[in-house]
Amino acid sequence: MTLLAVVSDAMLMPFYPQFFEETFGMSNPQHVGYYIAATCFTVMFAFPFWAWVARRVPELNLLVWTQLLAGLLCIYCYWTQSLVEFWIVSLSMIVFKGSYLLIYPYVMSLEKKGNYSGTIGLLSVIVHFGSILGAILGGYVVDLYNPRNLFLIMAIGDFVQMAVSFFLIKSSRFDTSRTHEEADKSAEDSSLVPHGFIFKLGMITLVFYFSAFLIRPFFSLYWESVSVYDSEIVSGFIYAIPGVVALFALWLSHRQKQSDNSYKGIVPAMLLGLAGLFLQSAPSDLVVFLGRFVYGWAMYHAVVKYDVLLFELSTPKSYATDYSKIHFFQNLGVLIASFSAGILVDLHGLQMPFFVAAAGFIVTLLAYYFSFRSKISLAQTST
Question: Which residues form a coiled coil (predicted)?
C-alpha cells in the first residue's frame, strides 16, 4: 500500500514545471513552488485529522473509503480543463490520500524495540523504491504521452490500495481493532502542543526536510541544463538514483546487523549529505551523477536514524500521536522549501537551491549536536 501511494506521489514530483506548462500553459516557476507548497500544507493538516478519526474508526476501514474518494478525484483531475478547478480538485484529492500515512505508526506499533532500524529501513526503502518507479514512469508518460494520463494511473493505484485494505479487513489473520482500542486509551494522554523531545526533534527535522526538499522541484530542469541528455526519461533515472542507493544501503545494513543506536549515525550522515549537495551543484553532469549517489547514501541513513530516534524516545501507545506531530514539523519544512524553491530559481537560477540546502544541513547538524550532545558522547564512548 505504501509503495503504491509513493509511486503516485513521485510520478509528477520531478515534472511539475513541464506538467503545468504543457497542460495549462503556465510556465512561471513560482507557480510550481506555490502548488507544491499547497500540497504540503494540505497534508500537514489532513494527517492529524485522519489520526483523530482513526481513534473511532479502525485504520483499514477508514482507508477503504478515503482511497475510493481519492481515486474518483484523480479521474476528475484528468478531465478538468481549468487551472483553478485543478487546484481545488487536486488538493481535495490529497486530503483523502493523506490517510495512508496512518499505516506507518501502525506498523511500528507491531514491532519490538531493537528491531526499529530494520523496519524503518525497510519502509524507507519502499518509499525510495516507489520514488524510482514513480520517477521513471512519470518521465516515460511526460516524454511520450499527455501528462494528464498520470492521474488515471494514480486513480488505479488508489483503487488497488482500497482493494488491499478490504482484503486485509476480511482476513482472519489480521486484527483491525487492536490499534483502534490502543489509540482510544492513549488519546487522553496526548497534548495538542508538542513539548520536550518532540519539539526539539521536530524543529531539527523541520530544517532537515526543508533542506532536503529544496532541491527537488527543479532538479530535473537543473540536470537538463548541465547535461547533454535532453530527455525526461533520463531525468527520471537521475532523479531516482538516491532510491537505488537506498536499496543497497538496506541490504548492507541487514548483512552487518547494525544496532538501533541512532545517536552515533546522524552526524556522519549529515556531513556526507553536505558533500553530496556540493557535488550536485557542480556544472558537470558527471559530478552531479556522482553527487546523487553520495547524497542518496547520506539521506537514507539520516532519515532512518531520525525516525529510529523518534520511536526510541516515544512509547507504543503514543506512536501515532507523536509521529503526527513530528510529521507536521517535517511537512512545515517541506512547505517552506516549496515556497522558497520557486523564488530562489526565479531570482538566482537553478543552482542556488543547492547552496541554501547546504546551509540548512549545517544548521541541522549544529542544532542536533547541541540538543543531544550528552547522548551522542555516551554513544561514542560505548562504541
Answer: none
